[in-house]
Amino acid sequence: MNDLSTPPSPDSVPVTQRKPDWIRVKAPVSREYGATRDLMRGLGLNTVCEEAACPNIGECWTKKHATVMILGDVCTRACAFCNVKTGMPRKVDLNEPAHVAEAAAKLGLEHIVITSVDRDDLPDGGASQFVKVINELRRTTPHTTIEILTPDFRNKMRPAIEAIVAAGPDVYNHNLETVPRNYPTIRPGARYYSSLRLLEEVKAHNPLIFTKSGIMLGLGEQRLEVHQVMDDMRSAQIDFLTMGQYLRPTPKHAEVKEFVTPAAFNAYGAIARAKGFLQVAASPLTRSSYHAGKDFAEMRAAREAKLAKAAAKG
Ligand code: SF4
């Protein structure tokens, strides 16, 4: 048996079983959860937490950590894993940057994550709205660190990256989502190597911006394929890797091929660290924005330690 075979138990459990215990989360009931929801609704902001039916919403919103989804709640793509609505999006909300900044201020956020739907209908893919949001956050909450999670800006990548990098987010995240073999079925509108190149370009434009990317496990990927994705990410100088369990939002979406055990996630995490990522988050409930503020602080400290070590060596 080689590494390309399906990992044997206890790396995974058959999906005919109900969700394993390690996936179960508490229902969102806290008062703070309600306050976060009311604030977002009041400002007319969408969140990927709700739109993607994220299992961590109870925990995150209780801590006032919400990931804002700009540019509407309708996506121009139809990826097989994603719960966001597909169709013809509405006009861009010109008040959105101010509302995002107001939410960050009211929630007292030290770190904010901003993502968006794909807007292939817009001439710039929505890049200018990211720039406006970053600028507005810098103006009104200058101490809030900013992480953006963008689409691939298909056919308009270069100008989009140039504009966004010039605005200076602290972290630029773009998810590869899965191994390249799965792209035709899971992420048909995207190209694996274009996504990698996007992150490489961000680093080339500004090496100080941390780059981040993630994949979902449980979509039939094999161990060696995951290792290859890690190597590809390191070649593109990606700083931070996230890995989490794919969960099927509805029966219309791609099926879960396996539930990867926490031990297997730990093993992947150890391999990723050995491959040189500055930061790694790997667990069944890891999502791009899960514990993003804490992970950002750790990543920044890791870079400082690495630079100090290099300087000491002379
Ligand atoms: S993990 Fe991210 S998307 Fe999920 S609830 Fe937390 S902040 Fe929202």
From TrEMBL:
Binds 2 [4Fe-4S] clusters per subunit. One cluster is coordinated with 3 cysteines and an exchangeable S-adenosyl-L-methionine. SUPFAM superfamilies: Radical SAM enzymes. Pathway: Protein modification; protein lipoylation via endogenous pathway; protein N(6)-(lipoyl)lysine from octanoyl-[acyl-carrier-protein]: step 2/2. Its EC number is 2.8.1.8. The keyword Transport does not apply. The keyword Ubl conjugation does not apply. It is found in: Cytoplasm. Its main location: cytoplasm. [4Fe-4S] cluster 2 binds at residues 75, 79, 82. One of its GO terms (biological process) is protein lipoylation. InterPro entries: Aldolase_TIM, Elp3/MiaA/NifB-like_rSAM, LIAS_N, Lipoyl_synth, rSAM, rSAM_sf. GO terms for cellular component: cytoplasm. Residues 61-278 form the Radical SAM core domain. Its cofactor is [4Fe-4S] cluster. It catalyses: [[Fe-S] cluster scaffold protein carrying a second [4Fe-4S](2+) cluster] + N(6)-octanoyl-L-lysyl-[protein] + 2 oxidized [2Fe-2S]-[ferredoxin] + 2 S-adenosyl-L-methionine + 4 H(+) = [[Fe-S] cluster scaffold protein] + N(6)-[(R)-dihydrolipoyl]-L-lysyl-[protein] + 4 Fe(3+) + 2 hydrogen sulfide + 2 5'-deoxyadenosine + 2 L-methionine + 2 reduced [2Fe-2S]-[ferredoxin]. It is an enzyme of class 2 (transferase). Belongs to the radical SAM superfamily. Lipoyl synthase family. This is Lipoyl synthase. The lineage of its organism: Bacteria, Pseudomonadati, Pseudomonadota, Alphaproteobacteria, Sphingomonadales.
